[in-house]
Design a protein that fits this description.
The protein is of the alpha/beta class. The chain contains 6 helices and 13 strands. This is FAD dependent oxidoreductase.
C-alpha cells in the first residue's frame, strides 16, 4: 500500500512528489500519458508570474508571490535554467491605465516587491520595439521565464532518486473510498493508498467526482502560440501582457 498517490505528473504533481520524497513514506506518481509534463504543463506560457494578478486575501494571492521567491533556489538545486526578465502589462488608453493601476494596488496587497507604474518614455526606453500607441505599463521585475517541461522532468527525476514510483501510461478509471484508504483503478490494474493528491490538470474535476460530489467544473479554453525563430529573441526584453479585459488577458509576448 502507498502512503500517497499523486494523480498527474505535470508541474504541480512533480513539485509535490519531490517535496514529499524528503519524508520516509511510499509514494506513487501516476499519469495517463507516456511521459512527464505531457498535459497542461507542456502547453503553458513558461512564465513565473510576479503575483500581482491574484485577488488579495485568497490562498492564490498569498502563494503566488511566495512561490515566485522560491524558484531561484529550486532551480539552482535542480540545475534548471531560470531567468528573471521582469514583465510589463501595457496600456494604450486611459481606461487600460486604470486597469493596470488596479493590478498595482492588488500587487501591493499581495506584498509583491519593486513594482512600478511607468509612462511612455520609460517604457519605450526599456522596450524600444513596443507599439508607439502604448502610453504606460505596470512593471514587475520579479517575473521570470523557465522551461516548464525541463523543470517538471528534473523534479520527477529527483523524486524518483528519492524513491518515488513513477507510473506512466496509467489512466485512472475509478476510485473506491474504503474505511481507511482508497482503491485506485487504472487501465493497468489497481493500487491502494492512504491519501490521494489530485494534480490532474484540466481533468481534476473528473478525478474529484470519482470520490465525491460534483463540487466544481473545469471549462478548458484553448489558446494559440506563434513560435518565432531564436534569432528573434531580442525583439523584446521582458514578458509583455496586454491590459486584461472582461474577455480575457489578450496576447502575451
Amino acid at each position: 500500500m502507498y502512503d500517497v498517490a499523486i494523480i498527474g505528473a505535470g508541474i504541480t504533481g512533480t513539485f509535490i512528489a519531490r517535496e514529499l520524497s524528503k519524508f520516509d513514506i511510499k509514494i506513487a506518481l501516476i499519469d495517463k500519458e507516456t511521459d512527464i509534463a505531457n498535459g497542461t504543463t507542456k502547453a503553458n506560457s513558461a512564465i513565473i508570474h510576479a503575483g500581482y494578478d491574484a485577488k488579495p486575501d485568497t490562498l492564490k494571492g498569498k502563494l503566488n508571490g511566495l512561490g515566485n521567491t522560491m524558484f531561484d533556489q529550486v532551480c539552482k538545486e535542480l540545475d534548471v535554467h531560470f531567468k528573471r526578465v521582469g514583465s510589463f502589462v501595457i496600456a494604450s488608453n486611459e481606461e487600460e491605465m486604470e486597469s493596470i493601476k488596479e493590478l498595482y494596488a492588488r500587487g501591493l496587497k499581495n506584498n509583491i516587491p519593486d513594482m512600478k507604474i511607468l509612462f511612455q518614455e520609460k517604457v519605450r526606453a526599456m522596450e524600444p520595439n513596443i507599439n508607439e500607441a502604448v502610453i504606460g505599463a505596470l512593471y514587475a521585475p520579479t517575473a521570470g521565464i523557465i522551461s516548464p517541461w525541463e523543470l517538471a522532468v528534473a523534479l520527477a527525476e529527483n523524486a524518483a532518486d528519492n524513491g518515488v514510483e513513477i507510473k506512466l501510461e496509467n489512466c485512472v478509471t475509478g476510485i473506491d473510498k474504503k474505511t481507511d484508504n482508497f482503491l485506485v483503478h487504472t487501465n493497468n490494474g489497481e493500487m491502494e493508498t492512504k491519501y490521494i493528491i489530485n494534480c490532474a490538470g484540466v481533468y481534476a474535476d473528473k478525478i474529484n467526482e470519482m470520490v465525491g460530489s460534483k463540487t466544481f467544473e473545469i471549462n478548458a479554453r484553448k489558446g494559440q502560440y506563434n513560435i518565432l525563430d531564436k534569432s528573434a529573441g531580442n525583439i523584446v526584453n521582458h514578458v509583455i501582457f496586454q491590459a486584461p479585459t472582461k474577455l480575457g488577458k489578450g496576447v502575451l509576448v
